[in-house]
Every structure is written in structure tokens, then in C-alpha cells.
Amino acid sequence: MTPIPDSTQKSATAQGSVIYFRDGKSVLAKKGVDRRIVELAKVPKHVRDAVIAAENRSFYEDAGVSIKGTTRAVWSTITGQQLQGGSTITQQLVRNYYSGLSQERSVTRKFKEILISMKVDQSKSKDWVLEQYLNTIYFGRGANGIQSAAKAYFAKDVEDLTVAEGAYLAAVIQQPSRFADPKGADLEAARYRWQSVISAMTQTKTLTPQQAAAEKFPELKTPKKPFELKGQGMYAVAQVTAELNRRGYTDEDINSGGLRIVTTFDKKLMEAAERAVKDVLPDSTPKKVRTGLAAVDPKTGEVVAFYGGRTDQSDYYDNAFSAEVMAGSTFKPYTLAAALDSGLDLGTRVNGNSPMRVASAPEPIPNDSGRSYGQIDLVQATQNSVNTAFVDLGQKVGLDKVAAVAEAAGIPKDQLEQHQGAATFPLGVASVSAVQNASGFSTFANGGVHVEAHVVKSVTDSHGEKKVVEPVSTEVVDKQAAADTVYAMQQVVKYGTGTAARLYDRPVAGKTGTTDDSRSVWFNGFTPQLAVAVNMFRDDNKTVTIPGYGTQFGGQLPAQVWRAFMTEAMAGKTVEQFPEPSDYGYRPDYGTPERDPSVPPDQGYPTPSDPGDWEDFPDPEPSDPQMSEPPDPDRPPDQPDDPIPSDGPPTDGGPDQGPPSGGPEGNGDNHDNAGRPSPGR
Q1: Confidence class of residue 180 from pLDDT cuts 50, 70 and 90?
Q2: If residue 114 lies in a helix (H) or strand (E), which one and from where to where?
Q3: Mean pLDDT lowest for which of 49-53, 187-191, 514-518, 644-648?
Q4: Distance of alpha carbon 16 from alpha carbon 260, whole angstroms
Q5: Which long-range contacts (CB under 8 A, 24 or more apart) does 593-601 make?
Q6: Which value, in Å, is the radius of gyration of the alpha carbons in the chain?
Q7: Which has the minimum average pLDDT: 35-49, 340-354, 438-452, 662-676?
Q8: Is residue 518 within 8 Å of residue 436, measured between CB atoms?
Q9: What is the DSSP letter of 302?
Q10: How many CA atoms lie within 13 A of 654 on its CB side?
Q11: C-alpha distances in angstroms, 539 versus 146, 323, 516, 667?
């Protein structure tokens, strides 16, 4: 009437998961119980013999219980004395392995344990019992099971344990806490217990007296400190866990399923990302200023590196994955790609005059400093980040098409649709994360095909079955449209607002972004092998200003951080070229700085000393020099248009961006006075 329980205690068989960097060897983190289940055949016979000699010498002959020992234990329980030993290996397994058996000292529980042990002995082989026991028992040092114990005490796999080492682990079972790291009197007690196990092995005839005499007390490894996540590791594990959840793995699977999880993160590039931020940003950077960096492989969609910020800044979110801030002019390439994919070409002329009046916009839309550029082609518009030109282009191609391209490139729909009807939508009023923006730009580097950004490469379960993540690929624009988009973005880095990001040994394409009042500043760029986004913002949504460096815009510190990271990331990599653009006719070199003719093309251009140095071509006469009336400061924030991001030094006035999403105060799109445009580039 006392059946063998049909379920086991979860803690008895739980195996913690190990999360690795992309090399599959370097450990990023550990989750859950430290246990690795092994087959009995992998446990050397001398280790098994040591455990049997220490715990239950009659194991292979008894019926699963010790009558003498059990009688002694029951009597101790009845009389109220401390519960004594006497349990067999089978009884210990039953107590710790099967559910429904509590650990309290009671006669009823003890008799139930005896009966189940006898039934287990009748229905299971001795080897099965010993295997479960060795994988279940706690050995101290946080190690559950013989394999983890071998690693914890001797830094080796169980199959490599010597006789002396096996005897020590057998000795530990009795008092795991005391013998985990013994010193002084505890060390003497551990030596005595170890010698007792060696002597017991001569009594069970698994060692001869001569062999026993030759054994020496083993040297224990210094205990490792419990695994502690530090720095970017906390952010990395949070993202890995979230992605595994999305792919159907529960938290229980992760914490107790014994998974081997290989991530996309490159350990060296992760270190390079953190180094780039810390080396470039001055010591005077206020604590409230946040910096995020994300690097995505265009061909695979793998997030190979990121910097999520200082861990003392917030417990709520990281700056690379979770924080979503206005994209500013880094959004313009999505508009450009949509136009080129719809049949327009780089020679298409758009209106670059300021201000521009659009029927759906409540206020005229200006350029930075009210500057007019006249009718310009799409290369000039991109190179000089002309707001009105992109508003005009958005009207020509259709804002729904712009939104479709951005969404296909990895920007979530819910971050776009609330802004999609605004004439300023092409200027980057939607908020994005650094990972989303890097992933979006990777589309252009990959010939117009977007590969889903992801952080998990593969998952191997406790049975050795491996599942490799297969990300979704989407053709966003055709190859030629992507090539032409890349060409226009190359001019930004060669001659435009992004010259601080030049890599002198290889081509670079990119785009700066600076929102109104510099509440978020960006540089987003790529080589054919790697797309990287860098953003800076404040957690209180004020202007990003650094003492001694002034108010920031995308072509300053963000571009410098980008360059520092990419210089290290691309070191030793093959120099790859971007595809040739379409022949769109006359290509004027606006804003080309003078260079030394002895320096090869695309190398050695001077970096502007201030944001205005790239503006060295004459202004055309504005077609409409009349600026709009001053905006109404009391205009409610729910008007149909959005604030205008800027690529240049901020001007006074403009909407609050709101705190980044994922943080304690909001989602980054709570714009005050949403109809108030500010000049920008």
C-alpha cells in the first residue's frame, strides 16, 4: 500500500545551465544549481568503491535497508534524541530523490522510507541506484553530484579522479560544510576521515594494504568564489534569458534544465566596446549622461558586442537593448532607401529650402539655422542631412512606404505607427534602441536583406541535442537600392557631418543624428562586415552637455566612440569594398575639404574642428526667406505632428523627448509641445 512515488524532487535532478560567449568555451554566466549528471560508467571504479566503503559497505548485498542502523535511528527518533545515521545508500537516495518524503524526524516518515527503499531495491538495479545517488548527493562548495564535486575540489572531470581524490569526495559526504575548505582542527578531522575511507577500502578488498599505504592525502584546489555577474554580464544574461523565453524556453528550463547556451557575444569585442566608451568619454561626463553601443553582424544578424552603460546608473534598463530614444537623422536613410526602392534615383531633386510648409504639418519646417539649399539631389541631401529635403522626399515616396522599410529593417511597428502620419516622420521622431538601429543599418550593408537581430547562437540540452538558432531573413529593398543608399551614406563620413568616424584603411558609411536640444545624439555606421550604433542621452532627458566639451551632437563624441571601437574591431580584418552605386549623372563634390594630393584617395581628410567646418559651399538664394510665426508654447502635446530632430548644434526651444523606455519614468516618446519645430540638420 506504499507505492514508489512517480515523481522526483526537482532539486534532486536539477542541472544548472551554462551560458557561453560565442566561442562556446569562455563562460559568460551560470544559472541555477551546479550539477552535471553523468553516467555511472564515467565514474571510475575506485571512486565508486570509495563511496561504498564510506557510506554502505554491504550495498551490493543488502535489500536496500540496514535493519541494525534503521532500528537505531527509529529508537533515537522515539526517545527524542538526535537522529543518528544508519541509512543505506538506497535509503539516502529515496529520501533525497523522490517527492512526497519530507525530511522531518518522525517514525511514520522513517517507516515509509524503509518500505519504499525495499521496493526500489526490488524494482531497480543496484547500478541504477548508485548512479542516481552519485548525481544527487551534495558535496559542499556548492557542488551537487560527483561531476561538479570533481570540478569544485580538484578542477578535473570525474573520470580523471585518482584513488586519493575519490576517497576524499567520499569522506566529504558525511560533513560537506565542514570539509569543503578545512583548516586547523577541521583539516585534521578531514585527514582522519579520509584515512578511515582508505582503510575501509582495504576491508572491502578494493585496495590492498600496500596500495592503501602508498596513498597520500590529496591537494585540494582553492575554492572558487560563487559565480557573480559583473559589468555588462548582467545586461547580457537578461537579454539571453528574454530571447530564450521568446523561443519557448521557460525560466525553469534555464535554471534547472542543464542547458549549454552559446551566445553571439564576442568576448574581445565586448571588452573593446566598453574600452571605447571609457577611453573616449572624458572624466567630466556627468553620471546622468548615458552611452549605449551595439554591434551587429550584417550577414548573420548576430549581436556580437554591446555596451549597456555603467551598472550603477540604473537597475531598470541598459542603454543598448532597452533604452529607446529618438532616432533623429539616423532615421533618414530608411526614407532614402524607400525612395530608391520605389523607382527614384540618387539624381532625384528635392526641395532643400527653409522653411517648408506641408499641409499636414501645423508649423513650417525649418533646416538648421534656417539655411536653404535650393533644389538638391539625394546624395547632397544625405551628406548635409537637409531636413526639408527629406520631408519633401517623404511626401514624394509616401510615409507608409518609409514605415514599411523601417519595419522590415527591424524597427518594431509599435514604435513607428504613432508617428507615421507626421510630415516630420522621415526626420526620426520615432524612438529606437541602439541594437534596433544597428540592426536596421545592417540591412544596407547586407545588400538590402535584413537578418533578424539575435543574441543566442545555439542551445544544447542535457541529453546532448543541439538546436541552432535560425534567424528570419527579410528582403527590405533590392540590391541596387541598398548600394545607392550606402553610397550616399559614405559621403556623410567623407565630407559631411560624420567625418570624425572615418577609418583610414577602409570605406565607411554612416549617419549622424542629433535631436532637438541634443536630448539624444547618435552616430550609426557600418563597414561591409559590421554595423555599429552609438547613442548618448540623459536619464532626465535634458541636453547632453559635458563640461569642457559643450553640448554634444552626433558627429562629436558618438562618432569618436564609434571610431575607437571600430578601429579595434576591424584590426586585421580584410578590407572589403561597398558595391558600386548607380550612375546617376553629374556628381558635384560639395563640401570636400582640401587634402594632401600625396595621400591616397579616401584617406587623410582633416577632421573638422567644429560642427560648422563641413559647411563650405555657398548658399543658394532661398525661395521663401520668410520664417514662420513663433510657435505657441501652450500648444498641447497631442497635436498630429512631431518635433524635428537636428544633426547640428541645438537651438533654443523644442519638445521634451521624455525618458527612455524601460526606465522608471516612461517610454521616451512623451513629447511636450509636439508641434514646435526647431531648426536642425
Answers
A1: very high
A2: helix 107-123
A3: 644-648
A4: 9
A5: 593/495, 593/499
A6: 33
A7: 662-676
A8: no
A9: B
A10: 26
A11: 48, 10, 16, 11
Q: What are phi and psi of 639, to 5 degrees?
A: -75, 165
- Residue of higher predicted confidence among 598 and 172: 172
Q: Compute the distance between CA of residue 128 and CA of residue 135 in angstroms, rounded to an integer.
A: 11
What CA–CA distance (Å, rounded) separates 267 from 275? Answer: 12
Tallying the residues shown for the chain, one arrives at 681
Confidence of residue 107 (pLDDT cuts 50, 70, 90): low
**Residue 278: CB partners within 8 Å, gap ≥ 6?**
none
- In the residue annotation, 55 being an active-site residue is answered as yes
- pLDDT at site 633: 30
What would the mean pLDDT of 547-563 be, rounded to a whole number?
93
* Cβ count near 460 (within 10 Å): 18
**Does the reported pTM lie above 0.90?**
no
Residue 579 scores a pLDDT above 90: yes
Residue 391 pLDDT > 60: yes
List, in sequence order, every beta strand (DSSP E) within 507-555. Answer: 509-514, 520-526, 531-538, 545-546, 550-551
User: What domains sit in the chain, N to C, each tagged with a CATH number?
Assistant: 16-214 (1.10.3810.10), 265-340+398-457+467-584+625-681 (3.40.710.10)
**Contact by Cβ (8 Å): 292, 308:** yes
Residue with cell 524503509: 114
- Other C-beta atoms closer than 10 Å to the C-beta of 483 total 19
Q: Which of 66, 87, 148, 329 is catalytic?
A: 329
Beta-sheet pairing, 520-526 with 27-31:
unpaired
Interatomic CA distance for residues 419 and 425, integer angstroms: 6
| Of 17, 55, 256, 442, catalytic | 55
Q: Determine the pLDDT at residue 90.
A: 85
Burial of 530 (0-12, 13-18, 19+ CB in 10 A): buried
